[in-house]
Amino acid sequence: MAETILQAFEWYLPNDGKHWQRLAHQAKQIKAMGFTAVWLPPASKCAAGIDDVGYGTYDLYDLGEFDQKGTVRTKYGTKDEYLAAIKALHEAGLKVIPDIVVDHFMGADEAENVKAKSYSFDDRLKPTGDTQEIKAWTKFTFPGRHGKYNDYVWTWKNFTGIDYDGRSKNHAIYKFHTKEWEPKVDSENGNYDYLMGCDLDMSNPDTKEQLDKWGKWFQEQTQADGYRLDAVKHIKFDAFVDWLLHRRAEHDNHLFVVGEYWSDDINALNNYLDNSGNIISLFDVPLHFNLYEAATTMGKYDMRHIFAHTLVKDRPDFAVTFVDNHDTQVGQSLESWVDGWFKLHAYALILLRSAGIPTVFWGDLFGIPAKDTAPVGQGLVRMLKIREYLAYGRMVDYLDDPNIIGWTRTGDFDHDLSGYAVIMTNQQGGEKKMTVSAVHAGQTFVDMLGNNDAKVKLDENGVGTFPVSDGQVSVYVNEDVVAGLEAEEQMN
Fold first, then answer.
1. In what order do the strands lie in the sheet with 444-447?
2. Predicted TM-score (pTM) of this structure
3. Which helix (H) or strand (E) holds 269?
4. Residue 201 a catalytic site member
5. In this predicted model, what pLDDT tens digit does every residue of 221-233 receive, in sequence order?
6. How far apart are CA 131 and CA 168, in angstroms?
7. In whole angstroms, how large is the CA radius of gyration of the chain?
8. Of these residues, 81, 193, 230, 388, which one is catalytic?
9. Which of 163, 260, 284, 388 is catalytic?
10. What angle separates helix 378-390 from helix 19-33, to the nearest 10 degrees?
11. Is 260 one of the annotated active-site residues of the chain?
12. Among 469, 441, 471, 470, which residue's Cα sits nearest to residue 456?
């Protein structure tokens, strides 16, 4: 069965502390939809307490267990509910991939006087002042935890810099005296080591040791099947090599790990893979931006180049594909929302192809009530079923027209009725002659998405002429598959 990941959250989930409970309740439903793994939001206590989506890490060891930052629970619930959700997901046959945020800490408990030098926001290699003593909020004592699990106190020595001087009330990027920005990071803004908060110094032996101790504890607590690593472009490229090797040894199995390197430059992604030991996958951000451009250019995008300069084309074994996520949502810092008319096109381009591991966004599957955004709908649900039951055999591309493109999967002998033909257009409708497989000779194929009423009978070589309506995508499968699916949907 092909791997398919559900990103099991979106930015505007209700702040009711019930999300872990919801996931536990929906575990069997998620599995039945065709997913094999679930990416969970960050579980650690954050600086903004219950209002934090999970990316302002305060205490890694507090998974909703201690009264800190004005709350015991996190936005999503308590530690017990988190572990219960993981158990339910595992029992349903799903792998669990927690989101890990270890680029920075925020919300320190105490301030320290530290010598530091300010740098330009636009060029972190360009000083904007002389070395001076600042009041830096960099001491993390975690008073609400009282040393349970770990009694280490984090100080400025564990960090490279910060963005606020409590003495002068000045906002700037301050690099601490004796510290250096890590050279093996993204080169945006001169050097993109610093992102926000207290920037973890991954070259500090104590920092590395403490993160490793926490990783061992977290793995034991959760029995996670992998990790999603946040903001890896800002972290020393090889920082996770030993950390992940240790987790894999403890897990005694392969851990699936994907990093978020937010860049549309394929060369930057390839460079990261080369310099991080080729032990993790990366989200295919360049493909996301191709999809976004295709959705926002009124049919002028040349669909022959939809996979140009993408990870799924360059290094398909390391590509985790997606259409949208919590950062690209409307109103977020990386907003680049794929328009609704092109959503099914985009999901066909990641779910129904053989390369890459696709991720489906919670907001696309279940909607975003806070923004009055409806789910993509039945077409997406049916594509998940097509991927689960029919996505087998070799793939043949027909990416030969600026507007109308297609491909086929031949199917195989081990999966009854497997194989299909996909055709889409970002402009006017038309048709395309494509070969599924001679194994399907004489069979009648119909559009499982219901966007075209044609019945296509394949010839003795498995060749058919498949039509597509204006601005639509169609997925043609054996007509018996559609009849079976419709009967199943009526029963449910």
1. 395-398, 404-409, 420-425, 473-478, 444-447, 455-457
2. 0.96
3. helix 266-275
4. no
5. 999 999 999 999 9
6. 14
7. 24
8. 230
9. 260
10. 60
11. yes
12. 441
